[in-house]
Amino acid sequence: MDTTQDISLGSVIRYNGDLCQITELQHRTPGNKRAFVQVRMRNLRTGKMLDQRYRSGESLEIARLEYKMMQYLYPEGETLVCMDPVTFEQIYVPKILFGEGTKFLKENMEVKIGIESDTPIYAEPPTFVEVLISHTEPGVKGNTATNAMKPATIETGATVNVPLFVNQGDKIRVDTRTSEYVERVK
């Protein structure tokens, strides 16, 4: 068994039969009391956030995940089909694992998949994606005194707020974690 000293940010542990990824971790030593580890984690199956306190040195089970870079092929119902570029093996990954990043996925895009015993339990889209603006209203000249934004529909169908100078047909870079415009790509 592993102990609290073996965990770090991003570790995946088994908690109450479910796999949870650690998002926050603090080791505390209050005055004359025993040290403890305060952990905030996300249940990978449900997406629910949990808080847990462990005594320092307490044993817990760390899940051993195999991370693979895979190629996203196409959606199929409530799953996304991804392919291992080395073995050409296809796996079905539930859309919920990608979260909000699903709306930025394009065919043949590289994604990171975490697999435990042949079951995908973790999925992450690329941090930044380059997409084409398929529709947006034209910007008004001279309206740039403030950091004004306007909605734009991108090629995947998602809506992103972009600056007024961005026009239809432009290529932009978007942060998939926050769904925010980063920059215009030439």
Count of discrete alpha- or pi-helical segments spanning 4 or more residues: 0
Structural class: mainly beta
Question: How is the biggest beta sheet arranged?
Answer: 6 strands, antiparallel
Helix content: under 10%
* Low-pLDDT sequence parts: none
The secondary-structure element order is EEEEEEEEEEEEEEEE
Kindly describe this structure.
With 186 residues, the chain is mainly beta. The chain folds into three domains: 61 residues, SH3 type barrels (Roll), CATH 2.30.30; 59 residues, OB fold (Dihydrolipoamide Acetyltransferase, E2P) (Beta Barrel); 57 residues, Beta Barrel (OB fold (Dihydrolipoamide Acetyltransferase, E2P)), CATH 2.40.50. The chain is 0% helix and 54% strand. It has no helices and 16 strands. The strands form three sheets. Strands 1-6-2-3-4-5 form a six-stranded antiparallel beta sheet, with no helix packed on it. Strands 9-8-7-10-11 form a five-stranded antiparallel beta sheet, with no helix packed on it. It has a five-stranded antiparallel beta sheet with strand order 14-13-12-15-16, with no helix packed on it. The relative contact order is 0.13. The mean pLDDT is 88.
List the helices and strands and how they pair.
Layout lengths: L1 E2 L8 E4 L2 E11 L7 E8 L5 E7 L3 E4 L3 E11 L2 E5 L6 E5 L15 E7 L2 E6 L3 E9 L12 E6 L4 E5 L7 E5 L4 E6 L1
Antiparallel strand pairs: 1-6, 2-3, 2-6, 3-4, 4-5, 7-8, 7-10, 8-9, 10-11, 12-13, 12-15, 13-14, 15-16
